[in-house]
Amino acid sequence: MSARVILPLCLVAIGIWLAAVASAEPAVEPISEKLASADAGVGEKAFAQCSACHVAKPGAQVTVGPNLWNVVGRPVAAQSGYDYSESLKQVSGEWDFERLNVYLYDPKLLAPEGRMPFPGVKSTAERAHLIAYLRTLSDAPAALPEAGTASAGVASVGDDPQQWQGLPPGPGREEVFYRCKACHSLMIVKQQGLSRAAWDQSLEWMVEEQGMTPIEDPATRNRVLDYLATHFGLD
Predict the structure, then answer these.
(1) pLDDT digits (tens, 9 = 90+) for 141-153
(2) Single residue among 144, 177, 194 that ends a domain in this structure
(3) C-beta separation of 153 from 37 below 8 A
């Protein structure tokens, strides 16, 4: 076979290989067996990043995103009153544990042209805790899968060395981490250097101008403000 024939064939083969690599989805670790040992209380804190766009209350109206009450077991793209993307409408089936697992890891894996501007939860432990909490947001929570082997247990979110992205330990760290990272880089938070009053005004501005869900619990709000003022306040 001449070089004139071999070279085009090689280029075609390389093109096919590159296309396959580009379209390959990263493996997402299964979550079902980990849910029995997941902590819904930890997941509730992680849900703060979801609450920037979603409510999760019986009968609540949709906001930026659909109401997540009864989301586990609900057909995909089935919340009445919400205009889903065509990409998500094409996904069949229900929001079972594994489909939620993939979507929370990276929404684009399930709906490539979807509108959800969320980079995903890459920590398997965090996703397990979060899904365990989503399960509780129901009139009749779905049954948990049977516990698997001991190796299928869920680590504490705090055991992940990359989890907090440089936020120092202290009361309020989890609330600040989950709520802030939903919309922007935590580097912005760490560079501010605001007084407690200025942080308070900033939270109000985020609610009024950016559509952030307000922190309704006064104790949680005070804990967030104390943390921000202590670690990222005025020198």
Answers:
(1) 999 987 654 444 5
(2) 144
(3) yes
Specify whether 172 is located in the same domain as 204: yes
Query: Are the C-beta atoms of residues 199 and 228 closer than 8 Å to each other?
Result: yes
| Neighbouring residues of 171: CB distance < 8 A, sequence distance ≥ 6 | 223, 226, 227
- Tally the domains of the chain: 2
Smallest CA-to-CA distance from 120 within 38, 214, 28 is with 28
> What is the domain range of residue 196?
168-235
Whole-angstrom Cα distance, residue 14 to residue 63? 46
Say yes or no: 128 and 37 in one domain.
yes
Each residue of 166-212: pLDDT tens digit? 888 888 888 888 878 777 777 888 888 888 899 999 889 888 887 77
* C-alpha to C-alpha distances, 188 to 54, 148, 180, 192, 193, nearest whole angstrom: 23, 41, 9, 7, 10
Closest residue by Cα to residue 114 from 88, 89, 95, 93: 88
Q: Using CB atoms within 10 Å of the CB of residue 103, give its burial: 0 to 12 exposed, 13 to 18 middle, 19+ buried.
A: buried
